[in-house]
């Protein structure tokens, strides 16, 4: 019983700490116009909600409301980890991190979205156009909607892609 409470307090504290970190880190985001809703708004909202959720979990634990222990998970313990798939996903993520400054967000994100879908079993000719559209939508939303500049890379100078 005591161990369960410690775990629940630790969970609430961790959630609240992540919220405090998010709020503190959001203050370092540069904004073009201080009067408009800018790139800091979302991190402030998320950080505040995390702090509130963490505090609510701590208060609920103090009042004796503990989470229900699961009887068993619906997992086949005999199935082994598919390390090939994990390796593909790690390789795709590392490639994205390396390429984002070289070729820009649209190309690197396309590779990330396509590679993750392909690694998890998607048909490549369906996943590729969806990955392209998703990467471009994210680029446009960040560049035009939020005024944030993701690296455009080879698309530098294209008005709706270059924040």
Automatic annotation (TrEMBL):
Segments forming domain DUF1468: 11-151
Superkingdom of source: Bacteria
Keyword Membrane listed: yes
Membrane-spanning intervals of the chain: 42-62, 83-100, 106-125, 132-155
Keywords, alphabetical: Membrane, Transmembrane, Transmembrane helix
InterPro entries: DUF1468
Keyword Membrane in annotation: yes
Protein's UniProt name: Putative tricarboxylic transport membrane protein
């Amino acid at each position: 019983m005591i161990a369960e409470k410690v775990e629940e307090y630790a969970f609430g504290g961790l959630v609240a700490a992540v919220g405090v970190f998010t709020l503190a880190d959001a203050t370092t985001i540069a904004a073009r116009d201080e009067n408009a809703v800018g790139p800091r708004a979302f991190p402030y909202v998320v950080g505040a909600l995390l702090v509130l959720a963490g505090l609510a979990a701590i208060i609920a634990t103090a009042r004796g409301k503990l989470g229900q222990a699961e009887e068993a998970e619906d997992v086949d313990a005999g199935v082994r980890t598919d390390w090939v798939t994990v390796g593909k996903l790690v390789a795709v993520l590392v490639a994205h991190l390396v390429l984002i400054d070289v070729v820009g967000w649209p190309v690197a994100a396309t590779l990330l979205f396509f590679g993750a879908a392909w690694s998890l079993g998607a048909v490549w000719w369906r996943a590729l156009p969806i990955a392209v559209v998703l990467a471009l939508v994210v680029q446009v939303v960040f560049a035009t909607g939020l005024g944030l500049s993701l690296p455009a890379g080879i698309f530098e100078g294209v008005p709706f892609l270059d924040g």
